[in-house]
Specification:
The chain has 18 helices and ten strands. The chain has helices at residues 2-11, 32-42, 71-76, 86-102, 117-134, 159-162, 168-175, 204-209, 214-237, 241-291, 303-312, 318-331, 337-347, 354-357, 395-404, 439-445, 459-471, 487-495; strands at 22-26, 46-51, 57-60, 63-65, 107-110, 147-153, 182-188, 193-198, 447-454, 475-481. It has a six-stranded mixed β-sheet with strand order 3-4-10-9-6-5, sandwiched between helices. Strands 1-2 form a two-stranded parallel ribbon. Strand 5, helix 5 and strand 6 form a beta-alpha-beta unit. Pfam families: Sec1 (PF00995). InterPro entries: Sec-1-like_dom1, Sec-1-like_dom3a, Sec1-like, Sec1-like_dom2, Sec1-like_sf. Belongs to the STXBP/unc-18/SEC1 family.
Length: 511
Amino acid sequence: MIQSVDGLINDFASKSSKYKAAYVYFTDFCDDKLFNKMKSSCSKAIRRCKEININFIPNESQVFTLDVPNAFYRCYSPNIEKTNDNVMEQIAEQIVTLCATLEENPGVRYKNKPLDNASKLAQLVEKKLENYYKIDERGQVKGKTNSQLLIIDRGFDSVSTVLHELTFQAMAYDLLPIENDTYKYKTDVANGKEREAILEEDDDLWVKIRHKHIADVLEEIPKLMKEVSSKRKATEGKISLNNLAQLMKKMPYFRKQITKQVVHLNIAEDCMNKFKSNIEKLCKVEQDLALGTDAEGQKVKDSMRVLLPVLLNKSLDSYDKIRAILLYIFSTNGTTQENLDKLIQNVQIENDSNMINNWMYLGVPILTTSATQRRVSRRTRSSEGTFQLSRWTPIVKDVMEDAIENKLDSKEWPYCSQCPAPWNGSGAVSARHKPKTSYLEERKGGAKLIVFVIGGITYSETRCAYEVSQAYKSCEVIIGSTHTVTPRRLLDDVKALTVTKPKDTVYLKDE
């Protein structure tokens, strides 16, 4: 923002400015010092100046990011001076712009320990919310609204960041080279013509199937293609000038529908080719390690025996083996230095060993200590129908459900501010089964639960926001983070935590 204001001032510094006037819009709060600097330098040239509070990216209808991936390094690297809170200041300001856009002044809570990032950020957000609503443009102080904001450090659920997911969106972004939500595919293998498709909210089919299991997607897309084709044939069969005119109008629609289905079928088939070649057996091992039980519910007695086939499999790359080793370590709450050294040497990943070691900077135990770490108690989900290779549920889903049902422990999840009335244990937001009314009607007067993860969210975690919102009709769940991560990208970021980088600036957008 400072650079932008200085650039504006420079543009109007000389009398021969190429602009007649300026319309200035700030995407977040502009402090008085900066505003006065601009006012004293070029106020005559400014026709309009407004704060519009949109310093975040609405990736999906219930998902947002702040587009500050460098914040991961800034928050968790041991090379960074922790007294420097520039990164936290920026993140807090951006979260406030989200709340302002939603017209919410939420009660703020955070996950206590093992790190203090969540606590610091929660305090800053609460302070900035208080300041923002004191200077509301209507000149009124806005009290706490019917919403709650939970702030969590990335290390709260390490398992979900490395596990292979078999729901469509998470699987595709993990296994395929999708960059900037763009999937490249070939329509004709013979001539090698490559096309691009954007995976976005405007694609109704993508929105409909992205959270479904890959098995369901492979079953559903061919059915949809057959349905569109049959409608097209039925229209073509009626020969009359009127019907032909109608058909010509509908052709672009049919073409668009078929194209979308072909794209998503290509993605699904690409995923399954990867899955069948290597990932299928790996998924069983990962699920057993993550849950500590096998598909029949029997306790895993020897985690190393479960892990060994993965380490001996020569067709798996080092990333897959590192992910399995991490799940083994997470399942045992840390391992000995001797055992870790053997694992690293046997798999020959010495150059990538910090992908494992550096998790300790996220508060995740890698080496066994004398202090026993309490395991997170999980909700029982045995009654929920799940695929054998998709038994793990991200911990954030438990957190969301507990928050809505007022079951979060106040010692583990302290408040930074007064608890809004519907979240005070009265059960006002926990009506899971209510008389049927329109979805939009319920959402209009309902509560909002906003979850923010410092250091990246996974696609499996974003899916949980939709699932919980669907189950608890009276509360809409919105989830966000500094950025979205895939397992491979996160491992690269974890490895880089101990790399010394040039001194960072206040501006943290992607360098």
